[in-house]
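Data availability (excerpt). The following record was deposited with the supplementary files.
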Amino acid sequence: MREFYSQREAVRSHGQEKVKAAYDWIAQGMQSRDPERMAIYNRAMTSFDPYGEIVNSHAKQTVFEQIGSDPSAYVEKQLEEKLKDPAYAAKVLERIRGVTQQRPASSVTLPPSLGRSSSSANPREGDDEDNSDAGLFRQATR
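Predicted structure:
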């Protein structure tokens, strides 16, 4: 009963083709005595959802075979393939231009230079040349 309901739910969730492909994959591994697939089969038989376990394991194996052991190299290869398409390259350029145009022009107001300071003991209150601590603080917090 558990196997029947597990198979039915797997077909509903993943489709008949994926369930059949996963079943054939595990059966082939069992016939060839593949230790990894034997372990998957044993784990599936102790699971509440054996078909779900087999289908998920098959999906992981399929992705691993497609991507390989170096995901970064796979992503780089996919990006290179996409950039060969002029329409995709144009789309990337539009995105880059949009990002650079959205950046606000930043203006930084620096306090007055200490090199231009006068040796006056009592600088004026509102003067930009006030290089005392209080004057520099006022200039920085404007």
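Summary of structural features: The helical segments are 2-14, 16-31, 35-45, 50-67, 71-83, 86-102, 133-140.
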